[in-house]
């Protein structure tokens, strides 16, 4: 499916078993996956792991920004379109 794992800019884990010492287990269970196509279209995607607030899960956020400028292109009429058999009916 060509998915890309968005690595968080801050934090390493999104879950912790809340135990101390050798019994502590931490993992990055929660993550964002986006298609390669999104990244190739000039959309910048990043994520952050936020403070836990007492839970054993840390919330994560995803931000997306479009880098490219507007893709508005002026309409160009091509004269050869008039020769297409269905042109007039499509316009109507």
Helical content band: 10-25%
Beta-strand share of residues = 25-35%
* N-to-C order of helices and strands: EEEEHEEH
Which stretches are low in confidence, meaning pLDDT under 50 for 5 or more residues running?
Answer: none
Description:
With 92 residues, this protein is an alpha+beta fold. The protein is 11% helix and 26% strand. It is built from two helices and six strands; from the N terminus they run E-E-E-E-H-E-E-H. The chain has a two-stranded antiparallel ribbon. A two-stranded antiparallel sheet has the order 2-3. The chain has a two-stranded antiparallel ribbon with strand order 5-6. It is rod-shaped, with a radius of gyration of 24 Å. The mean pLDDT is 89.
Summarize this structure briefly.
With 92 residues, the chain is an alpha+beta fold. Helices cover 11% and strands 26% of the residues.
């Amino acid at each position: 499916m060509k998915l890309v794992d968005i690595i968080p800019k801050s934090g390493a884990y999104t879950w912790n078993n809340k135990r101390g010492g050798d019994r502590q287990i931490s993992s990055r269970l929660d993550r964002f996956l986006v298609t390669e196509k999104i990244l190739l279209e000039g959309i910048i995607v990043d994520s952050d792991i936020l403070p836990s607030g007492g839970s054993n899960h840390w919330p994560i956020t995803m931000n997306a920004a479009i880098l490219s400028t507007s893709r508005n292109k002026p309409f160009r009429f091509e004269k050869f379109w008039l020769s297409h058999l269905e042109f007039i009916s499509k316009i109507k």
